[in-house]
Amino acid sequence: MHAIYTDAFFLQNGTLGEFAKETIKKAIDIIKAQDKKQKHFAKYVIDFVGDDLIRNQLQELYNSNFVKQENLEEQYMRLIKEAERIKEKMQKDN
Question: In this structure, which of 32, 37, 57, 67 has its CB flanked by the most CB atoms within 10 Å?
Fold first, then answer.
């Protein structure tokens, strides 16, 4: 029965659970490395995790590594624009 199950899913090196485990591990590695080129893969994996506890933990890890960084980058760009605006105003006032 196990062989039929494994063959049905074309799993050559283990079971479906092993495949899921390795895929989730890859997503965690991407998140921890803050690999922006592959962050969409990590988000895709998170969205397909069926277990609420695991999915929520992965989402928290994702948010703490990517969403927080994106917010900081947005803040930085906003402050740069504000500094440029103030600099221009100071030059006009002089």
Answer: 57
Three-state DSSP at 43 gives helix
DSSP character string of 11-27 = -SSS-HHHHHHHHHHHH
Q: State the DSSP H helix or E strand holding residue 62, giving kind and residue range, or none if neither.
A: helix 52-62
Calculate mean pLDDT across residues 41-64.
91
- Residues 30 and 49 sit within 8 Å (Cβ to Cβ): no
**H helix count then E strand count, the chain:** 5, 0
**For residue 29, which amino acid is it?**
D
One-letter amino acid of 53: L
Q: Which two tokens stand for residue 37?
A: 């080129």
Q: Which residues contact 54 (CB under 8 A, 6 or more apart)?
A: 24
Please check whether residue 24 is in contact with residue 49, taking contact to mean a CB–CB distance below 8 angstroms.
yes
Q: Is 11 left (phi over 0), alpha (psi -120 to 50) or beta?
A: beta
Q: What is the pTM of this model?
A: 0.58
